[in-house]
Amino acid sequence: MSAIMKLLHAMLSSFKDLIPIILVVSFFELFVLHQAPAELGSILVGIVFVVLGLTFFVFGLEMGLFPIGESLAEALARKGSVFWLIIFSFSLGFGTTLAEPALTAVANEAAQVAADAGAIESNGQAMSSYSMGLRLTVAVSVGLAILLGVIRILKGWPIHYLIIGGYVLVMILTSFAPANIIGIAYDSGGVTTSTITVPLVTALGVGLASVIKGRNPMIDGFGLIAFASLSPMIFVLLYGMVFLN
Fold first, then answer.
1. What pTM did the predictor assign?
2. What residue spans define the domains of the chain?
3. CB neighbours of 211 closer than 8 A, spacing ≥ 6?
4. Is 224 exposed, middle or buried (0-12, 13-18, 19+ CB in 10 A)?
5. Helix (H, G, I), strand (E, B), or coil: what is residue 99?
6. Using a CB cutoff of 8 Å and minimum separation of 24, what contacts does 9-14 make?
7. 74 contacts 203 by C-beta, under 8 angstroms
8. Cβ atoms within 10 A of the Cβ of 200, count?
9. What is the pLDDT of residues 85-140, one digit of tens each?
10. SS3 label, residue 39
């Protein structure tokens, strides 16, 4: 019975989270465009599906992804194997990013735009190669970013020096990168930190900082997402400079 109540409470919470979006869309439909929403029935069914999806997604995070990330990080840290911890960190960042639906969508759209602009050939093979190249570049960059973040937790390095240095490098690379890759590079930093990557990476950082002596999970456990957002910008800019110039 308690599980059912928790599920209903989570559904109500998910619906409350959607209310601002519903109000904004309704306001513009009714008071700015002066028209009723088209296919209202389909919209209502879609809202129900979104509420259910958000509810089960949150439940899945709490029951599966968060515990897995924390337990693996804690187990590897207690084992004292820095080598396997580093391998796990890179693999986690690479694998979760390559599986990100948002990254796939942006990479496919970027390939279509590049083909329309004449930057690449307008055939399926060229567009697929361009899209996969972007995805692999971003995935490798996030893997290296998580690896760097884990080393930072182990060594206790201040995060702000690394972040400042990274953004300075982004600004420098922007001056030399092709114009048609700059926007994609900047957007790639956002799409990598989405539904799959964030829960596992956050759990990894918090779990690792919790078991290392002298580390505070609140101070040292967070920040991996910042690296995961920053590194794709650097690598995609470099990708453009190497392959698109």
1. 0.79
2. 1-65, 81-243
3. 73, 74, 77, 78
4. buried
5. coil
6. 10/55, 10/58, 10/59, 11/51, 11/52, 11/55, 14/50, 14/51, 14/54, 14/55, 14/58
7. no
8. 24
9. 899 889 988 988 888 888 888 888 888 888 887 777 888 888 899 899 999 999 99
10. coil
